[in-house]
């Protein structure tokens, strides 16, 4: 097991996000929000205050999550309030890699 030198933001979409996604999709998107899968975004390993971390990264997270459903011309205005209305989140500072294979990342 290896320790990865990153913290994380874990987000899970709320119903408001799925409602938006349905509103711009040609198909109705129905999701059981109690069982929907979240996403993890790696961040700085050492942080002491959550608010500056969220303010720093919320726009990038929203862009990534919205890109799943549409192109940039259909994105809503990215605000911290929108982010908080669309996602539940948690953060942590310990990331452990349980696999022996090398980590890979796209550029």
Counting DSSP E segments of at least 2 residues, the number of strands comes to 5
Rounded average pLDDT: 90
- Biggest sheet, spatial arrangement of strands: 3-2-4
Q: Number of DSSP helices? A: 3
User: Measured on Cα atoms, how large is the radius of gyration?
Assistant: 15 Å
Distance between the termini: 25 Å
- Main beta sheet strand tally, sense and closure: 3 strands, antiparallel
Structural class from helices and strands? alpha+beta
Work out the count of structural domains.
Answer: 1
Tell me the β content: 15-25%
| SSE sequence, one letter per element | EEHEHHEE
Taking pLDDT < 50 over at least 5 consecutive residues as the criterion, the unreliable ranges are: none
Which helices and strands appear, and what pairs or packs with what?
Layout: E1 2-4, E2 7-13, H1 15-24, E3 39-43, H2 50-66, H3 80-86, E4 87-92, E5 95-97
Antiparallel strand pairs: 1-5, 2-3, 2-4
Based on the model shown, name its key terms.
globular; 5 strands; 3 helices; three-stranded antiparallel sheet; two-stranded antiparallel sheet; alpha+beta
Could you please describe the fold and organization of this structure?
The protein is of the alpha+beta class. It is built from 3 helices and 5 strands; from the N terminus they run ββαβααββ. The chain has one domain. The relative contact order is 0.28.
Write a brief structural summary.
With 107 residues, the protein is α+β, with helices and mostly antiparallel strands.
